[in-house]
Design goal:
Blueprint lengths: L1 E11 L4 H12 L4 H8 L3 E11 L3 E5 L6 H8 L7 E7 L6 H10 L5 E3 L5 H10 L1 E4 L11 H11 L4 H14 L15 H14 L4 E5 L7 H18 L2 E6 L2 H7 L2 E6 L2 E6 L1 H6 L4 H9 L2
Parallel strand pairs: 3-8, 3-9, 6-7, 7-8
Antiparallel strand pairs: 1-2, 1-4, 4-5, 9-10
The chain binds adenosine-5'-triphosphate.
Adenosine-5'-triphosphate (ATP) binds next to helix 3.
């Protein structure tokens, strides 16, 4: 069952509606994003993306710098709104393993909503209850202790201090940081800070986790440890995870499926094996052959 579905999503930056339509028309003729930028002056973030992320899957978005990865993931929590298209999210799905098993069995019709139609209040609710994000540079609040950072999303939901700290403690334990709850972020290494970032995202119990180059700032050894930890947690949690990376080795290691972007276009979605054995074009083939 699909959890998130992007339907014909295009994003032209800093253009009025008519200017964006002109850029889209050139893209529809087959012009690539750098030519469109040259001709019109507008940056193409994404062009005509159709992508379904299944409930409970860890889906990697891969591509070179500027290919549109961050633009894509930021549409899912509406940090960015598209120029055109729709974004469907099934808000009835939660990530409890029992629910996921039921969903897998039934494949019933979904109760997806187009999140672009949400008003401000509904959007706030959607961000609090459905999607969490882990950022590349951690995004911790420097003057809050570790436990306050992890409990932050629960405080926003007005959960009482004891209860939210109990939940935060549980997640700090899960990521291996039990003894650091009173520390401040700048007292921790990068790897520890990102574990706090992960615990904070998990503490809300939201079913969708967005990870934007979440491990890219870390040393290779620590990065590998966090990848392993994410995979171990995911075994139990069954979240729907959209994981951005520019590193094909990381994508192959953690991704059940991988979507490859090039110049704002979605080139191919498939399992690592699909991409290896049936690459859609030379760009995909080069990524797969560059894999160590
Ligand atoms: N705020 C913005 N204003 C104008 N153009 C933008 C903006 N954000 C992104 N772009 C352009 O959109 C295209 C896609 O950028 P995006 O950051 O989504 O790619 P990316 O694959 O995440 O790259 P990176 O790996 O370097 O972060 C690029 O050409 C970029 O210059």
């Amino acid at each position: 069952m699909n959890h998130i579905r992007l339907e014909n999503i295009s994003k032209i930056y800093n253009a009025s509606s008519s200017q964006a339509q002109a850029a889209l028309a050139l893209l529809a003729e087959g012009m690539d994003s750098s030519e469109v930028k040259e001709k019109t002056g507008y940056s193409v973030g994404l062009y005509d993306i159709n992508l379904a992320v299944k409930a409970g899957e860890l889906h990697c978005i891969m591509g070179l710098s500027g290919s549109g990865k961050s633009t894509l993931i930021r549409h899912i929590n509406r940090l960015i709104d598209p120029t055109s298209g729709k974004i469907w999210v099934d808000t009835s799905i939660n990530a409890k393993p029992s629910t996921m098993a039921k969903i897998a069995e039934t494949e019933t019709s979904s109760s997806s909503i187009n999140i672009l139609a949400l008003d401000d209040k509904e959007l706030q609710h959607y961000r609090q209850q459905t999607v969490s994000m882990v950022f590349q540079h951690f995004g911790l609040v420097p003057h809050m202790t570790v436990i306050q950072n992890v409990a932050y999303g629960l405080r926003v939901r007005k959960m009482g201090v004891k209860e939210r700290h109990d939940v935060a403690r549980h997640w700090l334990h899960e990521v291996g940081l039990s003894n650091l709850e009173r520390s401040y972020p700048d007292e921790l290494s990068g790897g520890m800070q990102q574990r706090v970032g992960l615990a904070r995202a998990l503490a809300t119990d939201n079913p969708i986790l967005l990870m934007d180059e979440a491990f890219s700032a870390l040393d290779p050894l620590i990065r590998a440890q966090l990848q392993d930890q994410l995979l171990a947690l995911q075994e139990r949690l069954n979240k729907t995870i959209v994981f951005i990376t520019h590193d094909i080795d990381e994508a192959v290691k953690v991704g059940q499926r991988i979507s490859i972007l090039n110049g704002g276009r979605l080139v191919q979605t498939g399992t690592p094996s699909d991409l290896r054995h049936n690459p859609a074009d030379d760009y995909v083939a080069q990524f797969m052959s560059a894999k160590t």
